[in-house]
Predict the 3D structure of the following.
Amino acid sequence: MTGLLGVDEKTLKQVLAGWGPGKFDAVVFMDGKATRPDGGSGATLIPPAFGLAGVNLHTFTGWGSVTYWNAFVANLEMHGKGTFYDPRLKNAAQYPVAAKAGFDEVRSSEDLITSKLAALHFYQLAIPAPVPPKGSFDGAAATRGQLVFNGPGKCSSCHVPPLFTEPGWNMHTPAEIGIDDFQANRSPDKRYRTTPLKGLFAHQKGGFYHDGRFATPKDVVNHYNKYFSLGLTDKQAGDLAEYLKSL
Ligand code: HEC
């Protein structure tokens, strides 16, 4: 790993320790960018592995589906014997580490991975999102919040129920959602994926958005309220946050 990234062991350990709990940086092995321009870690939260049936792209900045990442991790991050192909990784300007290491094309004399991908994919898509336990949200407020979500909050234009992401190419520019472009620019599509919201209650610990920048669902709502000039009252914003916790 030190050889791949061209750094010494001390630096590598510092980078890994900087990720923090529940975070991972899959892209540092491709672009070698360990830190954001502000010096913070370039790691993102680990996205939920549940509720992905019907969802086109799997991670915060797209790249590919569940099966794409299975092939990527098994072949490249776990050094398995298999086949992997993604010519986007030949782009040396964006992915100097991957381009130099030849990540865009892996061929082995013996392929132990490809035959496992279908069954693994099928299993993963069958993992349902967990249902919020009784008492974990205010039911009356959540019912009112649903009307805000589908009405004046305009949330359902992107988070289309019941998938809560767009069927099709569910990607948006940083400007469309009012955040910086650091993490988006590390992906081939330079966009952020509309996060499917089912089972949101189950991963509140690390915060929300790809890097956990918003601590609570209410903070996310406040961001949209301001950025889109939605004019929601504080009560509507609170109801909407309860609805998010009920999904
Ligand atoms: C233009 C499309 C769009 C609209 C409109 C939109 N969202 Fe999002 N939403 C996104 C994208 C893209 C992300 C991923 C951001 C990231 O990962 O940094 C996201 C992320 C989120 C998250 C974080 C989920 C998580 O697990 O981290 C929540 C919660 C959320 N949106 C709720 C809402 C609500 C509530 C509204 C309405 C007020 C709304 N969104 C409107 C596109 C949209």
